[in-house]
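> example.struct
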């Protein structure tokens, strides 16, 4: 887990170590926009592959295996009282291809 003082903002590289590479075939990256600025500790709980700040909002990408995982992320946001203002698919990679952007 990250130190609370470590800043996640501005990460652009994909961090595949967070999603058990070789075990789970990651096929999609979804972009989520949350109203307000989330703490580094809260962001880390979503295991983002990248994070950015935009006009006071927190924007992050998550590797998603299937729709139930994507809806699980949305459900977690709702439980935490976070307002999701946008989410959409930004990248798709067929699980049978070797040139995955996450490898």
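> example.seq
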């Amino acid at each position: 887990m990250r130190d609370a003082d470590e800043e996640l903002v501005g990460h652009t590289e994909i961090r595949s170590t967070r999603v058990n590479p070789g075990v789970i075939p990651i096929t999609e990256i979804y972009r989520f926009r949350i109203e307000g600025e989330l703490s580094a500790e809260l962001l880390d709980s979503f295991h983002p592959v990248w994070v950015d700040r935009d006009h006071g909002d927190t924007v992050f990408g998550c590797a998603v295996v299937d729709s139930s995982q994507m809806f699980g992320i949305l459900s977690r946001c709702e439980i935490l009282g976070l307002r999701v203002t946008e989410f959409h698919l930004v990248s798709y990679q067929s699980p049978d291809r070797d040139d995955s952007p996450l490898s």
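> remarks
The CA atoms of residues 18 and 47 lie 6 Å apart.
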